[in-house]
Design goal:
single chain, about 220 residues, mainly alpha, two-stranded antiparallel sheet, 9 helices, globular
């Protein structure tokens, strides 16, 4: 969360509750990856909560570097690969699976590149205007094209899938990104996570929908 340590910890607790509710409804191993999205968001929010403490309280300063890298690990390395992979595991329609495999390849490429940058270049975090700003000296070549690839990997899979209501998740992610990019352009990484709770609720609803369809299959007409 982008406002304070208490806000981040509060979001982490809320997401943990959503995580439990989501995972409890999993019936097949293939559903677990998608159902784990809320718990990953939860860990990410807790890490930023500790980062807030490190940046505002000298007693926790020793946590600053570790929490900065932990938050960015999830934000920049995990999500581009996890989202298309999780949706691919749910998808049954072969044509959509083929496209999702291509998107997964893009996501893995993004994750590998950002992982390399996270290790090879200077990274830091500071509080500016009640938000955490992550400072990264990544090569300029990444630029806008890299941002587009990240968006393609994390949003397009939700629109490709034939699973009902999956598009809702994509719309929420897309709207949250547009709002963040327009109004918080200097804090995109942090502020975008403000929408994690809403996104995770959508995940829970999709899992419940899948469970309902499994128990009550639609008749073939």
């Amino acid at each position: 969360m982008c406002f304070s340590a208490s806000a981040s910890f509060g979001a982490g607790i809320l997401l943990s509750a959503i995580s439990i509710a989501t995972i409890k409804h999993v019936e097949k191993p293939s559903q677990l990856y998608f159902a784990c999205i809320p718990i990953i968001f939860s860990i990410q929010q807790f890490s930023e909560g500790f980062l807030w403490l490190a940046l505002t309280n000298s007693h926790y300063a020793y946590l600053q570097e570790e929490m900065t890298y932990l938050f960015l690990f999830f934000a920049q390395i995990v999500w581009p690969s996890w989202v298309p992979f999780a949706i691919l595991k749910l998808e049954k329609e072969e044509k959509s699976r083929t496209i999702l495999k291509i998107l997964l390849g893009i996501g893995i490429s993004v994750s590998l590149y950002l992982g390399y940058c996270l290790i090879a270049f200077d990274t830091g975090a500071q509080i500016i205007d009640y938000h955490i700003s992550y400072k990264q000296s990544y090569p300029i070549i990444w630029g806008g094209n890299g941002d587009y690839l990240y968006i393609i990997a994390t949003i397009v899979p939700t629109l490709i899938s034939n699973i009902k209501q999956m598009w809702t998740l994509g719309i929420i992610i897309f709207i949250s990104y547009v709002i963040t990019a327009l109004f918080y352009s200097d804090y995109v990484i942090s502020v975008w996570c403000f929408f994690a709770a809403l996104i995770s609720i959508a995940v829970l609803l999709i899992i419940l929908k899948i469970m309902n369809l499994t128990k009550n299959p639609q008749p073939i007409t």
